[in-house]
Structures are given as structure tokens and as C-alpha cells.
Amino acid sequence: MLDFAGDDISISDITPELVRKWRLWLNRLGTNVSDELGKSTQNYHLIALRGFLKFCAKRDIPALTPDKIELARTKRKQVTFLNEEELSRLFAQPDIHKEVGLRDRAILELLFSSGLRVSELVGLDRDHVNLKRREFMVRGKGQKDRPIFISPAAADWVNDYLGERQDNAAPLFIRYSGRKSVDNSGDYQRLTARSIQRLVAQYALLAGITKHVSPHTLRHSFATDLLMNGADLRSVQAMLGHSNIATTQIYTHVTDPHLKDVHERFHSNTVD
Q1: Is 216 a residue of the active site?
Q2: pTM, entire model
Q3: Which one is catalytic: 45, 50, 220, 242?
């Protein structure tokens, strides 16, 4: 709330009207991957405020009562993922005879192979990724580090792309259009999250995939593929970088590998 109301706010200033205005401010607050802050993220801020007000109540400090802070209603996340045939069609779209096409194929392969968030992918530099060992560390949400593992195919595509690069820029993935200004870091060339969102959506359209496809769809596909092939939920949680396993459990209702076997073994197919 300090970002909204300022550092000099006092407990007595926290009124229902201030909270209402703060909620509107949160609702309009964007991120690097969205124009709006998600309802769940807004609730984290509201829960923190409610916790502070409970602290005040326990110590008899005059303040707004915690029950005045109502959380935003959230819908259960709909998991959209691509099957093997859809992934093959998507990966076949970039023109790999051009450097930009090689870049895009490497991006698609890396997103699916690693489960990286798009914000994590755009932050990668060349020297972050060990293509020989096919593993590296990434710093995700909450400044938490986690290991990333990639397939031989993804490593090969990234290596092929880097082999065509004629520049010394640090970013792993660079853009080939826009302003050509120069700075010492090379960050002016770094591909943005928005650009990756657009190219993924464009290739999905060319592939004839009717569902909405984004970089996060490939992250969903990564998790779904692991679970469908028998990976345990805790391991998938660690690879996705989820701090709470409840976040990972959104996949289980579509990926539990035992449900179909149970149905076929125990459900009667005939009625006498």
C-alpha cells in the first residue's frame, strides 16, 4: 500500500474509502507480461493488509477491522495445453533457413522443454545457459533460484541459432528490427516478453491451432507432459518454481495418469 498511499501514511488513514481506491489502483497495475494485475496477485496484497490489521487488533491498536477487507473473486484457472501433434505443427512454422526463424524455433523448443516463464526466458544471456550439460539456473518469482533442464533437441536448436549469430551481444535472444542504438550492455537488442507473446500467437495461427496459445501455454504443456508420463507432483512443482503445491495442482484434474485405468478396471461397461 505504501507505493499507492506514500510512506507517511498512518494506521488511522486506512479507511474503507482508501482501501477502495487502492483496490482500483491494484486492478489497473500491469506487469511485464500483462496489462493488468491478476486477481490472485491482487488478493496477496489484500491478505497482507488484512494480516497487518489483525496484528493491530491483537495489540489493541485502533484500526480498520480486518473483516472489512474482502478478497477479489477468482475463477479456477483453465489449463490450456498443446498435444504432441499440435506441438509438431507449431514447431514446423518458423523458417529455419533464416536467422530470425532459427531464433524463433529455438525459443519455441526452449519454452516447451524447460517450462520457463516468458519473463525468465527474455532475461537469459548467452553465458547463463550450459548447452553441453543441458542445464542452468534461473532466478524466478520471489527472487528464487531453481535448476532448469532442457532436452537435446532444444539444446541443438539454441546452439544452431547461436552459431548463425554474427554479433557479440550478451542476450540469448535478440530482436532484428526496431531502433539500432548502441549501449555497452547490449540490452537494447534483447527481445521483449511482448515480442515473444506475439510470435508464439502468430505461429499458432499459421499452424491452424484454434485455441489461444501463448508462451504460458507451452509452460502448461511442459507440466502436463511431465505429469502424463508419470512425474510426481512435487518434482513438477520444483521444476516450475511454484512456491505452493496448490498452484501445481491445477494440472492434476487433466493429467492424472491413473484415472483412466481405474475407470476401465472398475466401471461396468454393460448393464444387465
Answers
A1: yes
A2: 0.71
A3: 242
What secondary structure letter does DSSP report for 36? S
| Of the candidates 164, 195, 159, the residue with the CA atom closest to the CA atom of residue 177 | 195
Active site residue 219: yes
Q: Which of 117, 134, 190, 220 is catalytic?
A: 117
Q: Where are the beta strands (DSSP E) in 115-168?
A: 135-139, 145-149
- 171 by DSSP, 3-state: which? strand
Q: Which of 141, 194, 198, 211 is catalytic?
A: 141
Q: What is the pLDDT of residue 70?
A: 87
Annotation marks residue 242 as catalytic: yes
The CA distance from 204 to 213, in Å, is: 6
Residue 154 pLDDT:
97
Active site residue 117: yes
